[in-house]
Structure formats: structure tokens, C-alpha cells
């Protein structure tokens, strides 16, 4: 089975740190591309809006500059194929704008795919589930080796809200720190804040986006899995 992700060990490999880069990729397999209702120009424009450009480079270059070790798991597929950070089911809030695990709408609220639950299920089985399993296995291996795991969920966001966003009035700082009440301890928030303190950029928590990625098998039940989202505003 072709993988839609890469896992790269940076440094000497002895670290509980996992850097997750879910939205930097642009690849879409041909069979999935045929289901998208956009022409090539429209698809390029949508990718320009929805891709977290160069966050994979931010991960690798940042670790190198810090002389730090981590496992970097990066999605090489576009989130227009599947979005690995969505819930599969009615609890996903982005279903309200047609952007669950399989997007039916574009960033400007146009139709991206026709509704087809069978196709969506095939995409989930083929792409979403293996990705989630690989990331879960990486977290499990890290827990086994170190007794704990630290996930940094790395993203970027535009300086102005896109039409699909649920809250257009939300503050858009230079750095958004996304948290989970169970998995993001205070010391992790403080560490991220300190890391950006000298940048001169505004730093805020859970705005314009909130939360952070934790594998479902550990969500709300494994305190040794800690996680924090770092979102960099793209104009910076």
C-alpha cells in the first residue's frame, strides 16, 4: 500500500518528541482528483489557500537549528484528499461547513465533491485509517521507549479569515498555541510561549484555532501523552 506520509528521525533519535505536520502536503492521487469538481486552475487556487506551506521545512530546520532530536511525521498528501485531524463522525464541528474528514466544500464554501457516503468511506479506509494507525503506532513506540510522548502539532494560518472558518471575529495573533485540557500541561504552554518570547510576535492561546492532535486511543485517557498545537501566521 502506498503511504501518504513520511516518518523521519531527526537527530540521534533519542527523544520523546514527535512533530506532526499534517497539512503541508499537496499530493492528490489521480483517482481522487477525478472526484474533485474544480478545474486545474481552481484546484491550484484552493491548494494555495488550504496548504500549510513550508511547515515541513519549519519542523526540520527548527530541529536542526536547535540541535534537537525528534520523530517528524509529515503528511505528503493534501488535506483535500482526507484531513487526518478531523473526527470521523457527527462530533466533528467542521461538518457544519462541509469539511469533515472528507471535504465536500472549498474554503470559499463552493462544492468540492458531490455527496457520496460510499466514496467517503472508501477514502477513510484507504487513507485516513492507515495514517491514524501509523501515528498511533509512533506514539505507542515512543511511550514504550520513554514512558511519555510530547506531540507538537505544527500548522500555519492566513492573516485574514477564510470564508469557511467558523469565527471570523477571532483574534489572529502571530503565534496561536492550541491546547487540550487533558493533554496540554501548563509547563508545555509555558515552554512554547518562552520559545517565541523574543520574536516580538503576539502570542495567544486557542485563537483563531483551538485544540491539538492526540490519537483517539489515548484521547482523554493517557496523561503521559502530552500535546500542543503551534500555529504560525503565514505573513510572518
Multimerization state: single chain
Order of helices and strands: EEHHHEHEEHEE
Q: CA-to-CA gap between the ends?
A: 38 Å
How would a crystallographer describe the biggest sheet?
7 strands, mixed
Helix- and strand-based class? Answer: alpha/beta
Helix share, percent: 25-40%
Number of helices: 5
| Uncertain regions spanning at least 5 consecutive residues | none
Question: Please, what is the average pLDDT?
Answer: 96
Shape: globular
The strand line-up of the biggest sheet is 1-3-2-4-7-5-6
**How many whole angstroms does the radius of gyration measure?**
17 Å
Number of DSSP strand runs: 7
Proportion of residues in β-strands: 15-25%
Characteristics:
236 residues, alpha/beta, 5 helices, seven-stranded mixed beta sheet
SSE inventory with pairings:
Elements: E1 5-10, E2 17-21, H1 30-33, H2 40-50, H3 55-66, E3 70-75, H4 117-146, E4 149-157, E5 175-178, H5 186-195, E6 203-205, E7 225-233
Parallel strand pairs: 2-3, 2-4, 4-7, 5-6
Antiparallel strand pairs: 1-3, 5-7
Amino acid at each position: 500500500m502506498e503511504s501518504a506520509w513520511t516518518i523521519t528521525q531527526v537527530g540521534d533519535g533519542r527523544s520523546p518528541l514527535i512533530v506532526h505536520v499534517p497539512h503541508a502536503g499537496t499530493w492528490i492521487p489521480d483517482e481522487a482528483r477525478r472526484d474533485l469538481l474544480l478545474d486545474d486552475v481552481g484546484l491550484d487556487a484552493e491548494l494555495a489557500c488550504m496548504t500549510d506551506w513550508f511547515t515541513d521545512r519549519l519542523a526540520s530546520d527548527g530541529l536542526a537549528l536547535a540541535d534537537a532530536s525528534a520523530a517528524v511525521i509529515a503528511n505528503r498528501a493534501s488535506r483535500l484528499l482526507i484531513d487526518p485531524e478531523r473526527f470521523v463522525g457527527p462530533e466533528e464541528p467542521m461538518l457544519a461547513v462541509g469539511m469533515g474528514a472528507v471535504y465536500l466544500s472549498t474554503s470559499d464554501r463552493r462544492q468540492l465533491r458531490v455527496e457520496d457516503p460510499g466514496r467517503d468511506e472508501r477514502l477513510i479506509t484507504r487513507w485516513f485509517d492507515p495514517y491514524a494507525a501509523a501515528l498511533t503506532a509512533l506514539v505507542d513506540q515512543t511511550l514504550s521507549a520513554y514512558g511519555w510522548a510530547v506531540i507538537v502539532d505544527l500548522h500555519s494560518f492566513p492573516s485574514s479569515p477564510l470564508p469557511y472558518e467558523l469565527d471570523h471575529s477571532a483574534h489572529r495573533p502571530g503565534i496561536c498555541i492550541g491546547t487540550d485540557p487533558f493533554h496540554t500541561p501548563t509547563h508545555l504552554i509555558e515552554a512554547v510561549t518562552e520559545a517565541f518570547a523574543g520574536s516580538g510576535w503576539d502570542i495567544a492561546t486557542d485563537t483563531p484555532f483551538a485544540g491539538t492532535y492526540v490519537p483517539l486511543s489515548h484521547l482523554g485517557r493517557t496523561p503521559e501523552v502530552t500535546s500542543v498545537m503551534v500555529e504560525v501566521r503565514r505573513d510572518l
